[in-house]
Structures are given as C-alpha cells and as structure tokens.
Amino acid sequence: METNFFERVYEIARKIPYGRVTSYGAIAKALGSGRSARMVGWAMNASHNFDDIPAHRVVNRNGLLTGKHHFHGTNLMQQLLESEGIKVKNNQIVDFDIHFWQPEILTEL
DNA sequence: AAGGTGACCGGCC
DNA sequence: TGGCCGGCCACCT
Description:
single chain; mainly alpha; 5 helices; globular; DNA-binding
C-alpha cells in the first residue's frame, strides 16, 4: 500500500457529481483532517496520472480556480466547469455555495 | 536523513 | 481591508 492517501483523495474526487464542485478543505475534512487541505492539493497534483479524477471540480474555499494554472490550458479548467453548467467569472465560480458539494465524511476506511 | 515545498485554511494584526 | 504567519502532512532532492 503506497500512498493510500492519494487513493483516498481520488476516491472522494471521483464521487463529485456532475455539475458540482467542492473545496480542498471539504475533501480534507472528509479525510478526517480538515487542516490538511494542502495534502489534497498535492494529491490532485498527482492526479495527472489518473484520468478519472475531475480535478477541475476541486477549487479552494473561495471558489477560486487556483489550480487552473496547473491544467494543460490556462482556461481549460474554466471551460470544463462551464461545460458542466457552472458559471465562472474572473477565475471564480459564480454561486459557488450553490454548486458546492460536500463529500461524505469518511470516518473510517 | 533532513530540509524545503505545496492546486490550502484559518486566525491574527 | 488586506497581508502575514503558523499548521498540517506527504512528496521530492
């Protein structure tokens, strides 16, 4: 078992419904460590090795597309979100609280 | 083996 | 109002 942490993050990321978004902190909280949001972000960094990870649905608590710079295209992330019916304005998700989806808390795995 | 980094978050000044 | 700092934990050099 190497880096099960990644799999846990991916497990939740994959559960993000279509047209919904979540924050790193929310995923971190789902993992049981609400303050380890950085790890979530880092895990998403490795998500490039997996095509099943909708990293574009994961943004920071501000609903800002902080990780868009890591995508292949500069505005690819925004296009993907808009493609799912999510409006993005100035690199920020409009009505983020509405589209926000909180993953189920994984008490144990 | 130790130190630095990171797609964050929350609090403090 | 906004900028700075600490915390958190895994990965990389």
